[in-house]
Amino acid sequence: MRFGWLVGSLALGGLLFGPADAQAETRRYALDANASQVVVHVGKAGLLSIAGHEHEVVSGSMHGTVSADPERIEQASVDVWFDAGALRVTGKGEPGADVPSVQENMLGPDVLDSAHHPGIHFVSTAVTAARRDGDAVLFDLHGKLSIRSVTREITIPVRVTFDADRLQALGSTKLRQTDFGIKPISKVGVVKVKDELEVTWRLVARSRQGSAAGAAK
Q1: Which terminus of the chain has a smaller tally of CB atoms within 10 A, N or C?
Q2: Which of 201, 186, 149 is nearest to 1 (CA)?
Q3: Is 4 within 8 Å of 132 (Cβ atoms)?
């Protein structure tokens, strides 16, 4: 069971086509952790997978920033960090008595090893294929995702909506545990979780300029 992350995280991405004006400048947005959430769905596999359980994991502590000029979206950048130790097994779809052991296994040395690898980190490298869909902006966010100190390049499709001082990014993607050196847990080699994880996210970020202006009123 595992993962991570993401997030998405990664994915706030770059995002930000704000209402364009001739004086537009690069704006910095800070991730609103209380309004954001990443959900990881861990499926089951194997000949006797019917005897196993699926798991749902949600993000906890996280922080990050987005920098973007609404007129130069291709120059946008995203940097998001998740606390691996704060990931939590919700218990949805599995017996409540199993949750503590699933949580322990997830954070333990065979999966995330959060004691030695406390962070899951995503940093963007490029934004491509940007297009509008009504009030939203769709694009592909390219970047590097690090889990257990293993870094892989990934591309994430993202949908972003925004207003004057806030943006919201929605998306989903799939990650393989083995890409990050994690061997999916199995029982007697028959019942095991899938290598592939499904990650969905809703990330909200707020303009630092907007926050400062609000505080000054």
Answers
A1: C
A2: 186
A3: no
Q: What is the pLDDT of residue 193?
A: 79
pLDDT at 9 over 60: no
- Closest by Cα among 80, 76, 57 to 7: 80
Structure tokens at 28: 């910095």
- 28 conformational bin, left if phi > 0, alpha if psi -120 to 50, beta if neither: beta
Structure tokens at 98: 């199993």
What local confidence, expressed as pLDDT, does residue 68 receive?
A: 72
CA distance linking residue 60 with residue 205, whole number of Å: 16
pTM of the complete model: 0.79
Structure tokens at 195: 């290598």
Tokens of 166: 């806030």
Report all structural domains of the chain as residue ranges with CATH numbers, in order of start. Answer: 27-216 (2.40.128.110)
How far is residue 78 from each of residues 71, 95, 122, 125, 141, measured CA to CA in Å?
Answer: 17, 38, 8, 8, 9
Which amino acid is present at 204?
Answer: V
- For CA atoms 85, 197, 157, 124, the dihedral sign is positive
N-term to C-term CA, the chain? 47
Contact assessment for residue 7 and residue 59, using Cβ atoms and an 8 Å cutoff: yes
